[in-house]
Design a protein that fits this description.
Layout lengths: L9 H6 L6 H7 L3 H6 L7 H22 L5 H11 L2 H11 L1 H4 L4 H5 L6 H19 L1 H18 L8 H11 L6 E8 L6 E8 L2 E8 L2 H18 L5
Antiparallel strand pairs: 1-2, 2-3
Helix pairs in contact: 2-9, 4-5, 4-9, 4-10, 6-9, 9-10, 11-12
Amino acid sequence: MLWSRRESTPIEERLGYRFKKPELLETALTHRSLANERKLGAHYERLEFLGDAVLGALAAEWLFEEHPELPEGDLSKLKSALVSERSLAEHAESLGLGEAIRLGIGEERSGGRRKPSLLADVLEAVFGALWLDGGPEVARKVVRRFLDQTYGDSEWLRWGDAKTRLQEVVQGWGWERPSYQLVAAEGPDHQKRFQVECVLKGEVFGTGQGSSKKEAEQRAAAAALARLSATPPGP
């Protein structure tokens, strides 16, 4: 079937781009385990290498344009959070990549479709495939959509290291340092979710959840910062 008459796959529809060379997308979605089982010549890892570089450059460009007020150190911290494994894995899930990955039997049985590290790697491979197939502008359009969505959906990203920022703010007001209380830890060991409260002046100012206590604390601090930003204390 000619490419011009080929129907877009669900992944292409969510990406907003139809590949001229569909085999590039197929390779990006092929795990090494399947390539070894079926003696295939290619799998996602080389495309992941390219996509990681593409993502890093485009994320740096995006942050440079969006935050002219931030110094290099803050930009670097924000970039690390923005392109973290967790951010990539969440976006990969929203695109349905977990169900589309081509896995070998062993990786399938071990729950590969739900592994954050694998989801993040495959999304980077897709970015690499977009760069090769559509060029820099296509890759930039799709990657920037990911960056916009991730930044908009993650309150704590807007503050970078929220715990440090919160401590600086409240100490500037003469308040005591914030404290963090673990209020819940639920789920099996490999999928545990933590809930933490950020306490200031004896009052809960923010609550956060995450897959680690550190992440939950950062989100609780970001929630506290958002509250203080909206209604700063009087003199």
